[in-house]
Design brief:
Its EC number is 2.7.7.65. With 311 residues, the chain is α+β, with helices and mostly antiparallel strands. 47% of the residues lie in helices and 23% in strands. The protein starts with a helix and ends with a strand.
Length: 311
């Protein structure tokens, strides 16, 4: 007849067999000494380190990616000191020098007086899950970028222009600095499309976008496709003279490109018309009024014969 001690020993052996047959890696740390009193044999399959090489939490922390170490160790220690169960994700170093994503699920064991006695937990390999999450995150970022990008030219679209201009307007208000805006219209583009076809028209707009992008050379200068054959350049901290120089550069570079436009009544090559305005905005000023003023200037340049700048 088995004794109670034999029964307990058998139960313990059953539990250990169950634990060591799972993919999760069980472990136990003595809180007073911060040493491993147990770690499952699965650790060798996952990370390659021998079981007897896991002596203390120093071995655990040293086998962690340097970028994760401080954050994870500080979090786990503080939670353990507070007696709180917790989880932590980090990259663990393998014996071959690679990294595997691990999730540690930690449970606090207490003694009769309620003090923390030991930490027990499981390590889970979550590499595949992390890779999937990172892939989804990249896809979300790509979709977000696409939502702000003009599909044809690759530059910013109207939505991005609206957000960026509003941000620069607020910055100019706060810093009491000038903000310049240039609106660009490709002259007689309907006639260009009618003569050369829409495919060639699309190619022309791409070329115009590339040229204009090169003219707005400073890091905070911003170009977007406003719609159709219209483009806009936002020039933060640029006064009227600087804005006019950029506009002239745009017009000259488009002319130098010598893009044929046989249907134009202005020039045998492609030309552009522009409206340019500069403002140091105050709290009383309206961004919409500013944009409408530049739009009127663009209309004025077209009414006056095109291939010119109105400012």
């Amino acid at each position: 007849m088995n004794t109670q001690a034999d029964d307990l020993a058998q139960d313990a052996e059953v539990y250990r067999t169950l634990l060591e047959s799972t993919k999760a890696i069980p472990w136990k740390i003595d809180w007073k000494t911060l040493t491993f009193s147990y770690i499952g044999p699965q650790i060798e399959t996952l990370l390659g380190w021998k079981r007897d090489s896991w002596q203390s939490i120093h071995d655990w922390s040293e086998r962690m990616h340097p970028d994760d170490r401080e954050r994870v160790v500080n979090f786990c220690v503080s939670q353990s000191q507070a007696g709180s169960d917790h989880e932590a994700d980090y990259r663990a170093l393998t014996a071959t020098g690679e990294y595997v994503w691990i999730r540690d699920v930690v449970h606090i064991m207490r003694n009769e007086t309620g003090e923390v006695d030991a930490l027990i937990g499981f390590m889970f390999d979550i590499t595949e899950r992390k890779e999937t999450e990172e892939q989804l995150l990249r896809l979300q970022q790509e979709l977000q970028e696409l939502s702000f990008k003009d599909a044809l030219t690759g530059i910013a679209n109207r939505r991005m222009f609206d957000e960026r201009l509003e941000a620069e307007w607020c910055h100019a208000q706060h810093q009491k600095q000038p903000l310049s805006l240039i609106m660009v219209d490709v002259d007689l583009f309907k006639q260009y499309n009618d003569l050369y076809g829409h495919i060639q028209g699309d190619s022309c707009l791409k070329q115009v976008a590339e040229i204009l992008s090169q003219c707005a050379a400073r890091s905070r200068d911003f170009i977007a496709r406003f719609g159709g054959e219209e483009f806009v350049l936002v020039l933060p901290d640029a006064d009227a003279n600087a804005a006019l120089k950029v506009a002239e550069r745009c017009r000259n570079q488009i002319f130098k490109a010598q893009i044929p436009h046989a249907a134009s009544t202005i020039s045998p090559v492609l030309t552009i018309s522009m409206g340019v305005a500069t403002q140091v905005p105050t709290r009383q000023d309206s961004l919409q009024d500013f944009v409408e003023r530049v739009d009127r200037l663009l209309y004025q340049s077209k009414q006056q014969g095109r291939n010119r700048i109105a400012s």
